[in-house]
């Protein structure tokens, strides 16, 4: 795949970049290693000052960088601005909280005494250069949620971004440099996917984090396992959105529309499978379908647009194949289901019902504004349908019954359960999944500690 900005609204290639050669990659690896040796000795106050400055610069750049995001991957510009604001918020959160999150821990006095020590501390130390392999769907946020905690922990970052968002990738490197971070603290590597394996095998790279497809995650995990290096993987999801009889159906249907089509439906934590109790199924299906039909599909640069184009022609073709397979094997289309005429990689908000286990869309992640509706006879069946997936990133539950909540929290196979609201990441809460959605956690204290050497310091009498 060429490293290029191709506008998904019209298919126009705007700018193409040459991949970095062996010499340039080596220079940057040397720089990362050398910078880490000094940067790791900096204090939390100095790191926080730099990260806060980066947040300020991002706020100043918000309008311009939002247009870059929209041009490169097609998200509505209003959502692009919100993404930039969210990144600045996360940077400030880590600048304020990192020292507390990584403070030395003191075991219980009884355990210290039992070990024969005069004192024991658990200390968090940085690992070194961390390779981040990041996707195009949230081209700022996916990077910042790695970079902010990694930099505050004293690590340095090497970014291999998706090949269709090179301008965003270069902007991020420039942002940290302008904020005052040393050149080697955060570097963008303009490289193809084939080069990732070679870099991950380099002994100077100490760990890796990847957000992306399951095949990409398998490849990185395989190499990292061979090299005995720490990894964090977030590999997508097919999140359930469960509606029970006690729910506010009108509100649930309204939120469901946003939960499905956020980022043009290209979000790992977007609700994708809508599992509705039979007592409220018809009412929910009617309101949800009406809401999906009413969305404005169009130019992502227009302020009124709610759904823009998919990020790539291949992505739209993959989505069409899932829908076509479902309709050929018995699914009913309640709205959408056919690409509109004209330029760009647009696909309309679509609702399918009559889904069976044999259909590909039941098993695979639909990465676009396509929702599947399931009817559940009771809570037990809702749990069975929800867990009948290879993925387990997050989940959404709508009910006013606390007994329902307790059961879903206990039995849903997911990294998150959001009750009477849609899944959304926040810097203070851990983010990640189970099953084929990956392992490890980003954000919160759990995220910042993923790339730390957790060191036991035992001091004798």
If you had to describe this structure to a student in words, what would you say it looks like?
- The chain has helices at 22-39, 44-73, 77-101, 109-115, 141-153, 166-179, 196-201, 214-227, 249-261, 281-294, 313-328, 360-363, 379-387, 402-411, 444-449; strands at residues 3-7, 12-17, 117-126, 129-133, 156-160, 186-188, 207-211, 230-234, 239-243, 271-277, 332-335, 350-353, 370-376, 391-392, 396-398, 418-419, 434-435, 438-439, 452-460.
- It is α/β, with parallel strands linked by helices and 461 residues long.
- The chain has two domains: 3-235 and 437-460, Aldehyde Dehydrogenase, Chain A, domain 1 (3-Layer(aba) Sandwich), CATH 3.40.605; 239-426, 3-Layer(aba) Sandwich (Aldehyde Dehydrogenase, Chain A, domain 2), CATH 3.40.309.
- The radius of gyration is 23 Å and the shape is globular.
- The model has no long low-confidence stretch (mean pLDDT 98).
- Keywords: NADP, Oxidoreductase.
- This is NADP-dependent succinic semialdehyde dehydrogenase.
- Pfam families: Aldedh.
- Belongs to the aldehyde dehydrogenase family.
Task: Spell out the blueprint of helices and strands.
Layout: E1 3-7, E2 12-17, H1 22-39, H2 44-73, H3 77-101, H4 109-115, E3 117-126, E4 129-133, H5 141-153, E5 156-160, H6 166-179, E6 186-188, H7 196-201, E7 207-211, H8 214-227, E8 230-234, E9 239-243, H9 249-261, E10 271-277, H10 281-294, H11 313-328, E11 332-335, E12 350-353, H12 360-363, E13 370-376, H13 379-387, E14 391-392, E15 396-398, H14 402-411, E16 418-419, E17 434-435, E18 438-439, H15 444-449, E19 452-460
Parallel strand pairs: 4-5, 4-7, 5-6, 7-8, 9-10, 9-15, 10-13, 12-13, 15-16
Antiparallel strand pairs: 1-2, 3-19, 8-18, 11-12, 14-17
Helix pairs in contact: 2-3, 2-5, 2-6, 3-5, 9-10
